[in-house]
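Problem: given the chain below (119 residues), write out its structure.
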Amino acid sequence: MTGKRVHEIVAAWLHVAIALLVAGCVAFLWFAAAELAPLMQGSFIPGLIAWVGRPVALTLFAVTALQLGAAVALLRQPGRGGTVLIVLSLLLLVIFPIGTAVGIYSLWALLVARAERTR
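Solution.
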C-alpha cells in the first residue's frame, strides 16, 4: 500500500466520521425539537421549526448518506467515490474549524491520489 493510498483511506474514514457526526447532531436536534414542542403550545415557533426543519434535516440526511456511500466506495476500491468526496470536501470548508481541517486534508489527499493515478 502506497503512502498516497494511506492518505486516501484516512480521508475516507474522516468523511465517515463527519457524516456520522452530522447525522447524530441532526437526529438529536430533531428529537429535542419534538420534545420541546408541547412546551410552546399556542406559539408559532413549533410550526416554523417543522416548516424549516424538515427540509433541512432531510437534505442533511441525504448528503450524509451520499457521503457515507462515497467513503465506503473509496475504502473498497481506490478511485471510486473520490469525485463525490472532493465536492463534499469543498462543502466542508465552510464548517469551521473541524470541517475546514477535514476539508483541506481530504482535498489534498484525494487530489494528490487522483494525480498519481492519472500518471
